[in-house]
Amino acid sequence: MAKRQLLLLSSSKVHGFEYLEYTKDDIQELLTKNQTSTVLFIPYALSNHEAYLKKVEIPFKKWGYKVEGIHNQEDPIHAIQKSEAIFIGGGNTFRLLKTLYDNNLINPIRNRVLKDGVPYIGASAGINVATSSIHTTNDMPIVYPPSFEALNLVPFNINPHYMDPDFSSKHKGETREERILQYHEEKNSKSVLGLREGATLYVEGNHAGLKGVAGARLFQKNKAPLEIEVGTDLSYLLKE
């Protein structure tokens, strides 16, 4: 069986960098070693697919890659089956997952990534759908997918854009940590990796490690949250 190759970005936009620039080297390394010339972009997390495609084309073309929007393909399933690499961008996670289900793309993407080893790059909502479920997304449920179960490319959950509690703030609403701990009160909840802005999880086969320009925070049920630094081996999470 081919190795899965995932580059999971907490965000495509990080302060001090242009769009996707902070992870340029990681993206180029992944695509170059797979001899990729064309990236299939899935823009379903936003409503204006063509405008989203044009935004994504800018950095990828600058780096020497062609980008095709799945919304412009006559047969989306066939587009997945012949894809050299897949990129799913951010936006609303509920809208994204619903559209993947509506177009019967869940299993084709899983097969292409897990069985064929095609590189998968996800940002924000694009990493929420790469996990076990979308239970730990930050987004509002503006539409209702038939299930919260996602692509399950990794067997745990991720919370992108993770924000640490600001104890100097006058805002006294729930923190991100509190919301994740509430998720862990549920019976079948999974571990949650809170990726700060600029954090990237790279998965190759049964190996996973934290990359990027920021750290992460790991929440496991009935355990104290764990601080994760860039360079940490997280392969044990793939065994859940």
TrEMBL record:
User: Where is this protein chiefly located?
Assistant: cytoplasm
The UniProt entry's GO biological process terms, in alphabetical order, are: proteolysis
Q: Which UniProt keywords apply?
A: Cytoplasm, Dipeptidase, Hydrolase, Protease, Serine protease
- Which residue ranges run through the membrane? none
Record's GO cellular component terms: cytoplasm
Q: Where in the cell is it found?
A: Cytoplasm
Question: In the Enzyme Commission scheme, what number(s) does this protein have?
Answer: 3.4.13.21
What the entry lists under InterPro entries is as follows: Class_I_gatase-like, Peptidase_S51
Q: Record's family?
A: Belongs to the peptidase S51 family.
The identity of this protein, by name, is: dipeptidase E
